[in-house]
Amino acid sequence: MSEFDLIARIQSRASGHAASGVVVGIGDDAAVIAPAAGHEIVATTDSLVPGRHFTDAWSAEEIGCLAARANLSDVAAMGARPRWALLTLTLPGVDEAWLDGFLDGFLAALEQAGTALVGGNLARGPLNIGVQLLGEVPAGQAVLRSGGQAGDRIVVTGTPGDAAAALLLGEKAPAELLNRLRCPPARVRAGLALRDHAHAMIDISDGFAADLNHLLSDDLGAEIDLDCLPASPALKKSVPAPEKRWPLQLQGGSDYELLALVPPQTDIDRLQEKAGVALTATGTVVDGGGIRFQSSQHALPPLIVQGWDHFKND
Amino acid sequence: MSEFDLIARIQSRASGHAASGVVVGIGDDAAVIAPAAGHEIVATTDSLVPGRHFTDAWSAEEIGCLAARANLSDVAAMGARPRWALLTLTLPGVDEAWLDGFLDGFLAALEQAGTALVGGNLARGPLNIGVQLLGEVPAGQAVLRSGGQAGDRIVVTGTPGDAAAALLLGEKAPAELLNRLRCPPARVRAGLALRDHAHAMIDISDGFAADLNHLLSDDLGAEIDLDCLPASPALKKSVPAPEKRWPLQLQGGSDYELLALVPPQTDIDRLQEKAGVALTATGTVVDGGGIRFQSSQHALPPLIVQGWDHFKND
Fold it and tell me: From A166, B215, B281, B314, which residue has the greatest number of CB atoms within 10 Å?
């Protein structure tokens, strides 16, 4: 199989995912896409490298899923709608079974998010998976990391910490947790729902605390009520003690949940219906730097008491 | 130096190249760009891997130049104006001097083409350089590979063959030829000039003959007058015999010249002024498949007589 054969194989599978706005797809010098009038384009890229982002224990399908979702999540965090993807594959050799598995996971995740694969590049070399994602957002409405205000409520989607627990427990981790690490959600619908309300938004890739810090300017801090921090049933079962669970939830990355700062009057229950996933208020933005954690039910572990300074410098 | 430090270093250098249409640049979850009204977006990606696309003999600046130009060339081949770039760097370690040299070459090539670096990604692993380029073209005016017609003249920009000669001669090659391989032109201005005339266009990355075949449908062929094939002074000096030079010019890739099919009545001399580079008519599109080469001045080498069949299957 030559490079041309591999491209033809990818093209034949991608063409089933034709989407509106694709003028020219795979097969020319570049793709041509037609953004909707009055919209801006959101553009992101993320790459996966063996040993850093996945191991030999991962299936090709899981790698494909993560490659798509890590990028979809960045577009979701801007409040944008993902539309078009490019794939830059560097492969050590021709392995049709691996490629087919990868495409199974990759294209399914794109399709679920209404995103078409429109182009890419193949090269020979150590395995490296680069994805570029383009999304659309009405002009001026992208939600940035900046923009938070004192008094804003700190809202998180879903249940952070599952991916960190899967990393900690390794192959012994229950399937629900492993799946959250290897094929995480991309909160596209939630990002769109939050767009009309959020002052600021980010996706949790470095960890709840580190990414919350990215939302806080030097003169803004946060108070987090750990009793409100949502945890999945699988995480609670695997790590029952809150003082052991919280560090995973706050410091663990790769969750791809969204973290948003919304005005205090926001009707979060109503927003949750539009988001299609749980939205939980976990704290408040305050004047003055740093993050303070509190719990009325449990003693805080030392790591968290000393926490915000470490996170601030992360 | 951490990943964050490296990103800050890239950001500080990229910010000098601010361009119109950048709503959000480096530093958020994704870049936000504002295409001009009535335009479509052209998107391409190309990656460079050591040993395949460059060797240890190359400077970091040359690698940066090639990374930018290989992508700019794809946008130029659509008749589009390059505007915004993303950079996906996988680096084996922190080497500030290398990164600075790379950025020297990369950012200079982008700036010269009016293109802003708006985002990207850093990962740790075997060296891999991925670039994504976004351009703009008035809606419906992108020039595709398809669209050629019998009677069209086959126009090439500049002087193909220099990069192939540099590869053949290796480190002994004269500087002019080496430079064409390592920091090739991107014919952006020529692509824009050709857009209003060309039925079809491609950039020469696989070789003149192979890429010409990409412009010809099954029922179209071409007649090439080798006496018209333009060669640079450096190439003529290094490889004086036409029968040795032609195979390099026809089969060698990495030239990044543009190959366009234009209607017979096109005023090529006038178009050349707008293109800012020599445009040479080298032959004609004909009915019936295959490429025929001819010369009234020299005997054809066997490789070229047998040529088109090989190229057709390339």
Answer: A166
pLDDT at res. A90: 96
B residues 182-221 closer than 8 Å to A (CB): 201-203
Examine the domain organization and report whether A98 and A181 are in the same domain.
Answer: no
Residue A312 lies in a domain: no
Question: Is the residue at B128 inside a domain?
Answer: yes
Domain boundary among B80, B108, B138: B138
A306 contacts: CB under 8 Å, gap ≥ 6:
none
Whether residues B181 and B212 share a domain: the answer is yes
Provide, as residue numbers in chain B, all residues whose Cβ is less than 8 Å from the Cβ of A77.
Answer: 29-30
Please check whether residue A69 is in contact with residue A186, taking contact to mean a CB–CB distance below 8 angstroms.
yes
A166 and A249 together in one domain: yes
CA-wise closest residue to B208 among B193, B191, B230: B230
Interface residue A93 vs chain B (CB under 8 A): no
Closest-CA residue to A73 (of A178, A190, A182, A203): A203
Which pLDDT does position B313 carry in this prediction? 37
CA A206 to chain centre: 10
Residue B54's alpha-carbon distances to A244, B61, B91, B127, B170, in angstroms, are: 49, 12, 15, 11, 12
The CATH number linked to B180 is 3.90.650.10
Domain assignment of residue B90, yes or no: yes
Residue B88 C-alpha, separation from nearest chain A C-alpha, in angstroms: 7
Is B134 at the interface with chain A, CB within 8 A? Answer: yes
Are A184 and A258 in contact, with CB atoms under 8 Å apart? no
Q: Provide the residue-wise pLDDT of chain B in tens; the chain has 314 residues.
A: 677 788 888 988 886 555 689 999 999 999 999 999 999 999 999 999 999 999 999 999 999 999 999 999 999 999 999 999 999 999 999 899 999 999 999 999 999 999 999 999 999 999 999 999 999 999 999 999 999 999 999 999 999 999 999 999 998 999 999 999 999 999 999 999 999 999 999 999 989 999 999 999 889 999 999 999 999 999 999 999 999 999 999 998 889 999 999 999 999 999 999 999 999 999 999 999 889 999 999 888 876 654 444 334 33
β-strand partners of B154: B261, B283
Q: Is residue B278 located within the same domain as residue B247?
A: yes
Q: What is the pLDDT of residues B112-122, one digit of tens each?
A: 999 999 999 99
pLDDT tens, position by position, A236-283: 999 999 999 999 999 988 889 999 999 999 999 999 999 999 999 999
Looking at the structure, tell me whether residues A64 and A28 fall in a common domain: yes
Optimal mutation site among A28, A81, A84, interface B, most CBs of chain B within 10 A: A28
Do B185 and B124 share a structural domain?
no
Same structural domain for residues A59 and A21?
Answer: yes
Q: What is the CATH number of the domain that holds B18?
A: 3.30.1330.10
Question: Which residues 6+ apart lie within 8 Å of B107 measured at CB?
Answer: B13, B14, B16, B17, B64, B117
Note whether B134 and B190 are same-domain residues.
Answer: no
Residue B190 vs residues B19, B80, B268: alpha-carbon distances, Å: 21, 10, 12
The number of folded domains in chain A is: 2
Q: Do B34 and A40 touch (CB under 8 A)?
A: yes
E-assigned strand segments in A65-164: 81-91, 116-124, 128-138, 153-157
Q: Which residues span the domain enclosing A16?
A: 3-138
Q: Do B24 and A126 touch (CB under 8 A)?
A: no
